[in-house]
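HUMAN:
Could you generate one sequence with tokenized structure?
ASSISTANT:
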Amino acid sequence: MNTWLAFFRRLGGALLLAPVLAWAQQAPAPATPKVLRIPFVAPETGFDPAQVSDLYSNIAISHIFESPYEYDHLARPFKIKPATAAAMPEISADFRTYTVRLKPGIFYSDDPAFKGRKRELVADDYVYAIKRLFDPALKSPSYTGMSEEGIIGLDALRETALKAKKPFDYDREVEGLRALDRYTLQIRLEAPRPRFMYVLADLPGMAREVVEHYGDRIMEHPVGTGPFRLTQWRRSSLMVFERNPNYREVLYDAEPNADDAEGQALLARFKGRRLPMVDRVEVSVVEESQPRWLAFLNNEFDLVGVPLEFVNVAAPNGELAPHLAKRGIRMYQGLASDVTLFYFNMEDPLVGGYTPQQVALRRAIGLATDVEREIRLARRGQAIPAQSGVAPHTYGYDPDFKSENSEFNLARAKALLDLNGYVDRNGDGWRDQSDGQPLVIRYATQPDQISRQFDELWKKNMDALGVRLEFEVRQWPEQLKRARAGQLMVWQLGSSSTSPDGQGSLQLAYGPGSGGSNLSRFKLEAFDALYRRIDQLPDGPERMAAFREAKKLMVAYMPYKFNVHRLYTDLTQPWVIGYRRPTFWRNQWHRMDVDMTMRRER
């Protein structure tokens, strides 16, 4: 084993909590189990769909739990099809009522919570899963988005619990969310929602008795109906997923575009194969780039997103390096549906607020951020400047839209600060606040090497502006927890799309989502009104115009500085077949195959 990877695994085992999850009697393993080995670049935070919001936890969750619908993994730009549902939903003419009929005979993986009985997925499980997002006790980061869907009666049920200061009443039926029978789910909405299908494609079903059985430990005990189950977990170090013995017969099928040669070849090769095609998935958390890259080169990982430091080694001039091509390694490149950003805590007395002086400070910091240098040096050319928070490949993204968000203008940034009283008052070379107090930006970051590279660029930007910078270094899960609690002043992170609609990006600034998806805690009624209007409009020129106005407001008040949309370079070993990076969805392990004979021979 690569010594770096071995070191990280030993460290995780020695220093971190190591709950081992192994509840169900395992089915007999094949003589040579097929094992897919994957690195995560950041730690997971847990496995409860109602409580997590980070990408890597959601990737894990998507292979354990199932939604009524899913995205066709080969169709582009996208196509939604039934997963646990028996057919596409019955949708009323006014787009206010959605009726979903589930397939009978779908079972959860075995768990002590079921007391030895097989547990079938039923419509009530989706009713319960949705209600959990509204439970005030959970403080779900998904609450705001689901609340805006306007399911009749759910917010009233939440308000009842809040006002009475009593536990949320899961047993109380509401008009807009009902199980009509064992396998029929009906959702009624306050207003037309023609894009509600995207919600139904990202709605994991959960068994109530599992949640009640594990209580506060539910983040550690995911039990779903999906192709895999979690059998081993060393927090922030290792996750092992094994084939769910109760997973129903699901056969490989897809609808790639007629001109998609790669997709057509995958369909021809795998059509009719039973899923999952691998027996076990081992996920190692390796935050540092070098050990992750070396482990892949040493055949210890089956696929890898090439770290920025090594992209010009792996793909000089955008072409797969000859020494990698000779090994049969395959390369996949493209523009990701994401955005990187840093946010300002709008409740912070220094960087927050809505007065012209406070806005000027944020805009000056934005103008002093040299994104092109970031792309050139830290990202090795693997990104394009972001003009707004709306991600590529989503509705609302406009490649022709240009804004101050991408502008680097140090002279203008300095002038903004000078005009608003942020000047050096004591001659020490650093700017102060108008009351003479030092102007110090506390910037949250992580201890890994790539974060340190971005930190150096940020310090150079702020030094040039004459602004002091203090770094607050903690692990990523801890920073996320503090961000939700409003305890960070400034933090940089990324946001990935979860649906084909760009309105999800605007949730970052939607007032009612403060502390959830809206980490900045930005609250502006004019923006919220635009958000609600975008929510109600059908796709078309009027909705795109509203998107543009919303983007302009975010640039003007600058609660977020959007930096780049990332380019990705993924590599797979020659024995991995079927890889294709998802655009919005996250589940793909069960549709990949591993040639174990070839791997052993290497």
User: Anything to note?
Assistant: The mean pLDDT is 94. DSSP finds 20 helices and 21 strands in the chain. The two ends are 14 Å apart (CA to CA). Residues 576 and 594 are 5 Å apart (CA to CA).
